[in-house]
Amino acid sequence: xxxxxxxxxxxxxxxxxxxxxxxxxxxxxxxxxxxxxxxxxxxxxxxxxxxxxxxxxxxxxxxxxxxxxxxxxxxxxxxxxxxxxxxxxxxxxxxxxxxxxxxxxxxxxxxxxxxxxxxxxxxxxxxxxxxxxxxxxxxxxxxxxxxxxxxxxxxxxxxxxxxxxxxxxxxxxxxxxxxxxxxxxxxxxxxxxxxxxxxxxxxxxxxxxxxxxxxxxxxxxxxxxxxxxxxxxxxxxxxxxxxxxxxxxxxxxxx
Length: 255
Hints:
Blueprint: E1 6-15, E2 18-28, E3 33-37, H1 44-51, E4 59-64, E5 67-68, H2 74-80, E6 82-84, H3 97-102, H4 113-118, H5 122-139, H6 155-167, E7 173-177, H7 185-202, E8 205-209, H8 213-219, E9 222-227, E10 230-235, H9 237-241, H10 244-251
Parallel strand pairs: 3-8, 3-9, 6-7, 7-8
Antiparallel strand pairs: 1-2, 1-4, 4-5, 9-10
């Protein structure tokens, strides 16, 4: 397998005798948008949870920017430069938008037990975090909401807030788990343009899990297809759309 920013190498994981991922391997190159698709239960979110060190695979390796991830904690994975969004919104409704975004950079904090007790450097660190949050909010056109609580904001706006929270960590790799869920057709189009824009601004590599095929095929340079935990296809969007195995397993037979 050629060297890439992210290398998934022969990952297998089982839950109670059920194989969620079976010998999965693929590589994502720097600044590439890679779509990961497949039916519900195919193992897409499971892979995100392996990368994020929530799940331990029974075999395989994941190499990120030359470093083996499986020996790291979730906190260390974030510090290494990986951020993610979630299928379901994970925002604190009573906190302000800016405060929610600031939590995305918690792993970059330098405070320890002593400095927290004495508050030495705490004020400057909080200012730096707030400045970073406001910078991300400005890029995503969310400044007008910065000091509002998240509760009651439109769903599409909250999706962008979650994206801002992932970006404030200044990641190299962004994992997007079904970002278009619940959005209207026009909101999906706007989100696609926004993701492509932030990819350029932040020099991001993106792994995208999404059921909205128009979004995946329109954004991705490469697509990996899973079915029952196994990779059944990998290639350009055009190659995937014309692959008989993919058509049968996921996209639906042509009429």
